[in-house]
Amino acid sequence: MQVRLGAWVLALLLGGCAGGPPKSGPASLDVGLSNHNAPGATSTANDPKDPFQGANRAMWAVNFDVLEPYVARPVIHSYADYVPDSVKEGIDNFVNNFDEPSSMVNHLISGDLPGAGTNLGRFTLNTTLGLLGIFDVAKHVGLERNMLEMSTLIGRADIGEGGYLMFPVYGPTTTRDLIGDTIDTSISPMPC
Hints:
This protein is mainly alpha-helical. It contains eight helices and two strands; from the N terminus they run αααααααββα. Among the domains are: 70-148, no CATH class; 154-185, no CATH class. The protein has helices at residues 2-17, 53-82, 85-97, 100-110, 113-128, 137-141, 150-156, 175-187; strands spanning 164-167, 171-174. It has a two-stranded antiparallel sheet with strand order 1-2. Helix 1 crosses helix 2 (53-82), helix 4 runs antiparallel to helix 5 and helix 4 packs across helix 8 (175-187).
């Protein structure tokens, strides 16, 4: 099973790389600026912001031509239409509660002890009294959510965003955000 999945991913990646250079648009879009030296939007395989352009285009096709209309849209509309708002709020609180430990670590790394203390207090109160975070008890005590992501810390260290990446299901990201999200997820106590 894993070999088949790997073969499909490899085929999609290589197929995206085989697309060739972009073709010019229809003549109706030519506004006569071909000899004009004004800067314009360009998209080439050598674009430093999109070094994985071929693979990104293939993943875009998977996400928006297959997954979005046939998987994501029906699930999202069903969730929005049939799940009560109070249940949606509980699910949101539950998921956000498990982001508190990684945010606490990020506040400690940045030297923000009060922010780390707020995250620790929120996680402790919401996990114990809020039934694993389903209820946001800490908000009613005066501890407002103050999230800090690792990708923000990396950005504060003047590390650039890196190349643009498109993943199936996960969607668009940059290398900095991907590294930050991976570190934050590894700190999170939520079993994934």
